[in-house]
Design brief:
Elements lengths: L3 E6 L4 H13 L3 E7 L19 E5 L5 H11 L3 E4 L6 H6 L1 H25 L30 H6 L6 E7 L47 H20 L3 E6 L1 E3 L8 H10 L4 E4 L5 E6 H14 L5 E4 L4 E3 H15 L11 E4 L14 H7 L7 H14 L1 H9 L4 H7 L3
Parallel strand pairs: 1-2, 1-4, 2-3, 4-5, 5-6, 6-10, 7-9, 8-12
Antiparallel strand pairs: 9-11
Helix pairs in contact: 1-8, 2-4, 4-6, 7-9, 9-11
């Protein structure tokens, strides 16, 4: 008997594929449905190792397809949604804000409304003999003595029912922090992700869950809007929601438009390393598998209607990250350490480039006991090795051949 049926949107993407893999392997009694449109950043080759698992299903679908999403929820008796699908690259959002608004805002609204209507249908009047019509995982949601006049807010939003809409967001919705200490100061807190040889903070303030939103790019504005819709669905309809805002992720399977995989590949092939401005912008970095572990924990144990920040207390200037990447790639390729420093090329800064992001994840640590498992140096070593050992994956992604994988694997299924 299936214990849970969960849709994970964007499950063929970078973070999503790690979450899908974790849930499929860790919860064989769950049915995991990977819903992904397979845009340029969605790659089913990321999930080759679990694609034939009996508790896994892939569905190619646009989250903006409300009718399709709603029908899927009805057919599969979905009682959980982990919503990662989003356009996420700031540079692309500057060139094409309409796509970001459509996917991140309207797509999220489509998922919310479909879940609302389906879950409400489970709390419409039932007579006692109709209990068999409920999916097994939800049969206990409506006590038989209360069938007839219950609300989703009462029975789904404020009890221990498994139904949950979990929305994954970004720290960029908070805007930017001032870099009041460009030389770095000792931080007020550490985690296992904090760098061993380089652990500094570049200001006294950090992003906390109670900060007002101040998005500065079309990407972060679209994500901020989607966050507001999620919270509005809880406040208005009693939707059992939770929101998390995470810092920069790195690790295997990241599309090489993002800094770390792009630069690893460029260093390997002796291509220029384009650095915005002076490379002084600061980000907090977290290994993607640690983010997936946090998502697992929050989905199961996080409080309804709460917001949790996820981060590593691991601030790095972009230029310092680049120096680490050069040294690591050179060493692993047998080149003299630092031999590729000459590849660094400073380019015009992008519009509205936020100076500093720094997440305070104390709430998540104190309430649910989560903290990262890998120190930054370990994570970078593991990440660089993966990309160097999986050049075929990188070649397919950069050439566009990865898009053929879906046709090869699923055309005749």
């Amino acid at each position: 008997m299936t214990k849970r049926t969960i849709i994970i949107t964007g499950g063929a993407g970078f973070i999503g594929s790690h979450v899908v893999r974790l849930f499929v392997n860790k919860y064989p009694e769950y049915r995991i449905i990977n819903l992904d449109k397979l845009t340029y950043a969605g790659n089913l080759a990321n999930l080759k190792d679990i694609e034939d698992k009996p508790n896994y299903r892939f569905v190619k679908m646009d989250i903006c397809d409300f009718e399709g999403v709603y029908q899927l929820m009805q057919e599969e008796h979905v009682d959980g949604i982990i919503h990662l699908a989003a356009e996420s690259h700031v540079d692309r959002s500057i060139k094409d804000p309409f796509t970001f608004a459509q996917t991140n805002v309207m797509g999220t609204l489509s998922m919310l409304q479909a879940a609302k209507l389906y879950w409400e249908s489970l709390t419409t009047p039932y007579v006692m003999q109709d209990v068999d019509r409920l999916p097994s995982s939800l049969a206990h949601v409506i006590p038989t003595e209360e069938r007839g006049s219950v609300s989703m807010g009462k029975e789904l939003g404020m009890t221990s029912t498994p139904c949950r809409f979990y929305h994954i967001s970004t720290d960029e919705v908070y805007g930017a922090l001032e870099m009041t200490h460009p030389q770095g100061i000792e931080p007020p807190f550490t985690t296992k992700a904090s760098s061993g040889e380089h652990h500094l903070a570049y200001g006294e303030k950090f992003f906390t869950e109670d900060l007002k939103y101040q998005p500065h790019s079309p990407y972060s504005a679209a994500k901020a809007s989607s966050d507001h819709f999620v919270r509005a669905f809880h406040d208005t309809y009693g939707m059992p929601t939770v929101v998390t805002n995470c810092s920069n992720n790195y690790g295997p399977y990241q599309f090489p438009e993002k800094l770390i995989p792009l630069f690893i590949n460029n260093i390997r092939h002796r291509k220029p390393l384009p650095v915005y401005g002076k490379g002084e912008n600061v980000r907090d970095w977290l290994f993607v598998e640690d983010h997936a572990r946090a998502i697992d924990l929050i989905f199961h144990e996080g409080k309804v209607a709460e917001t949790y920040n996820i981060g590593g207390f691991n601030e790095w200037k972009n230029i310092d990250i680049i120096h680490v990447l050069i040294k690591t790639v050179d060493r692993l390729l047998g080149r003299p350490e630092g031999a590729d420093e000459d590849l660094i090329t400073y380019v015009t800064d992008r519009a509205g480039h936020d100076m500093r992001y720094a997440i305070d994840s104390t709430k998540l640590q104190k309430e649910l006991g989560w903290e990262p498992s890998l120190q930054f140096e370990e994570g970078i070593e593991k990440t660089v090795r993966w990309y160097l050992d999986n050049q075929e994956w990188m070649d397919n992604v950069t050439s566009g051949d990865y898009q053929k994988y879906y046709d090869d694997m699923y055309a005749n299924r």
